[in-house]
Automatic annotation (TrEMBL):
Lipid metabolism recorded as keyword: yes
Function: Catalyzes the second two steps of the methylation pathway of phosphatidylcholine biosynthesis, the SAM-dependent methylation of phosphatidylmonomethylethanolamine (PMME) to phosphatidyldimethylethanolamine (PDME) and of PDME to phosphatidylcholine (PC).
MF terms in GO: phosphatidyl-N-methylethanolamine N-methyltransferase activity
Membrane spanning residue stretches: 24-41, 61-81, 101-122, 134-154, 160-183
Region Disordered, annotated ranges: 209-238
Protein name: Phosphatidyl-N-methylethanolamine N-methyltransferase
Catalytically driven reaction(s): a 1,2-diacyl-sn-glycero-3-phospho-N-methylethanolamine + S-adenosyl-L-methionine = a 1,2-diacyl-sn-glycero-3-phospho-N,N-dimethylethanolamine + S-adenosyl-L-homocysteine + H(+); a 1,2-diacyl-sn-glycero-3-phospho-N,N-dimethylethanolamine + S-adenosyl-L-methionine = a 1,2-diacyl-sn-glycero-3-phosphocholine + S-adenosyl-L-homocysteine + H(+)
Organism encoding this protein: Ustilago hordei (Barley covered smut fungus)
Binding site for S-adenosyl-L-methionine: 108-110, 190-191
GO biological process terms held by the UniProt record: methylation; phosphatidylcholine biosynthetic process
Family, per entry: Belongs to the class VI-like SAM-binding methyltransferase superfamily. PEMT/PEM2 methyltransferase family.
Cytoplasmic side: 77-103, 189-238
Length: 238
């Protein structure tokens, strides 16, 4: 009788998701929190230099500490996601023979995109160094950025889907959709903000170069003038 009541609950879709489990909502909160955290902290850093000021002007240290916090929050989020899946129902369709090989392929591809992105960008490029004024010398165009835009986000999303498929958990697929949605929203703010950082830096560099050229021209002797102090006086004619 208890089982029948549970199955008829509006918060349970048999074989799909059990919304009564607190672990599911904790995972939802973690997935939503992480991009919100790093965007708020990074944009505040760009505008106010809060972390850099607290650390006595050491912006690289500030970036590394932010990187550590983002990386740690990512590990916590992944752990909470896995805990949530353990309390969710499985579905027969996701337990067929072809599902696990597909999951393994997605997981390998997703992690390849993530790790190769980190390798190409470095720590400061990966973890919002440009918000600290640590800019990339040029746009990275090699792998995996020549395959897709934002490979770290989409590679991470692929890994979420892969784990859900591996354990046969439809609820994991729902959470993966949330991951994609949250990343998509984050990019709507991150991409124009980051583009503006580099646009402002380019304007600043051009202005500095123009001022330098103007200073050099003002210090140069005018054309056609003579340095009279170095002239040798001519002898008077007899």
């Amino acid at each position: 009788m208890v089982q029948l009541f549970a199955e008829s609950s509006p918060y349970v879709i048999p074989g799909i998701v059990d919304l009564r489990q607190p672990s599911f909502w904790i995972a939802v909160g973690s997935i939503c929190f992480n991009p919100l955290y790093w965007n708020i902290v990074a944009q505040n850093e760009y505008e106010n230099k809060t972390i850099t000021k607290v650390l006595g002007g050491r912006r690289y240290l500030g970036c590394y500490l932010l990187a550590l916090s983002i990386f740690s929050l990512g590990i916590v989020r992944d752990h909470l996601y896995n805990l949530a899946l353990k309390e969710q129902p499985t579905h027969a369709l996701l337990q067929r023979a072809w599902v696990k090989p597909l999951a393994a392929l997605l997981f390998a591809a997703g992690n390849t995109f993530v790790l190769s992105s980190m390798w190409a960008l470095g720590v400061t490029g990966t973890y919002l160094g440009d918000y600290f004024g640590i800019l990339m010398d040029s746009i990275v165009t090699g792998f995996p950025f020549n395959v897709m835009a934002n490979p770290m986000y989409w590679g991470s999303s692929m890994s979420f889907v892969a784990v859900a498929l591996w354990f046969g958990k439809p609820a994991g697929l729902l959470l993966s959709v949330l991951v994609v949605l949250v990343y998509s929203i984050a990019l709507r703010y991150e991409e124009p903000f980051t583009a503006n950082i580099y646009r402002q830096a380019e304007k600043k560099n051009k202005r500095a170069e123009a001022e330098k050229q103007a200073l050099l021209q003002s210090e140069a002797p005018a054309s056609g003038t003579r340095n009279l102090s170095r002239r040798t006086p001519s002898k008077p004619k007899a």
